Amino acid sequence: EAGVAQSPRYKIIEKRQSVAFWCNPISGHATLYWYQQILGQGPKLLIQFQNNGVVDDSQLPKDRFSAERLKGVDSTLKIQPAKLEDSAVYLCASSLGQGEADTQYFGPGTRLTVL
Amino acid sequence: GQNIDQPTEMTATEGAIVQINCTYQTSGFNGLFWYQQHAGEAPTFLSYNVLDGLEEKGRFSSFLSRSKGYSYLLLKELQMKDSASYLCAVRFNQAGTALIFGKGTTLSVSS
How far is CA A108 from CA A90, A97, B46, B65, in A? Predict the structure, then answer.
C-alpha cells in the first residue's frame, strides 16, 4: 500500500515570497491533516479536512496560510507571503476518519527554509 | 491548555530497557498515541492506548493510566536503530480526531 506522498521535499525561499506544498493521502483515507513541526518541537496541527470540507482550521494563520482539498483527495498548502518564523517541516497526514483508533499516517514532509 | 509533557532527552545502552514517560491533562481525553521519528523523517505509528493497562508489541510496550493522566513507552532490548525522537500525542474530545503532540523525547542508544 502506498503511503502519504508529499512534494517538494525541500524548499528554500526568501521572506515575502510565496510557496506551495502538495500532499497525496493514502487511498481511501477521508481525513487529511497538515501539521507544522518547528525544529525541536512536536507537530502542531494547522488544518484538518474531512473529505473536501474543513473540520478545524483554528490554528491556521489565515492572513498568510491557505489550504484546499479539491475533490476530497489531494491537498495543497500555500504560504503567501512567507516570514522567517515559517521555517519548519510541513507534515501531511491522513487517516480513515472513522473508528476509535483512527490512526494517522504521515508523509515524509516538506522542509521549508525562509531566508 | 492541553499540555503534553515528556522528558526532552534520554540516553541508554544497547540491550538495556528504557521507559519514556508522558503526562497530560485528563479532561476530554479520548486516546493516546506514541510515534517514533528518526531525524529528518516522518513520524511512524508505534502504539495506541485508550483503556487502562499495558499494550505489548514485540520489543515495545505502552501503558496508560487514564485517572492519573499518565502513559509510558517501554523499549526493551535496545538497539542502535532505536535512537530517535519518541512523540506522545493525545486526542481530546474537543479537538475532534486531531492530535496534540508533546515536544518529543530524544533517545540516544550507545554501544
Answer: 9, 20, 16, 32
Which SS3 state, helix, strand or coil, does residue B7 take? coil
* The residue type at B98: A
Residues belonging to chain A with any Cβ–Cβ distance to chain B shorter than 8 Å = 4, 31, 33, 40-45, 48, 55-56, 91, 95, 97, 100-109, 111
Q: Which of A55, A100, A109 sits opposite B96 (nearest CB)?
A: A55
- The answer to whether B3 and B26 are in contact (CB under 8 A) is no
Q: Strand, helix or coil at A17?
A: coil
Please, are residues A88 and A37 in contact by the beta-carbon 8 Å criterion?
A: yes
- What are the tens digits of pLDDT across the range A39-78? 999 999 999 999 989 999 999 999 999 999 988 899 999 9
A59 vs A61: CA distance, rounded Å: 6
Q: How far apart are CA B44 and CA A115, in angstroms?
A: 30
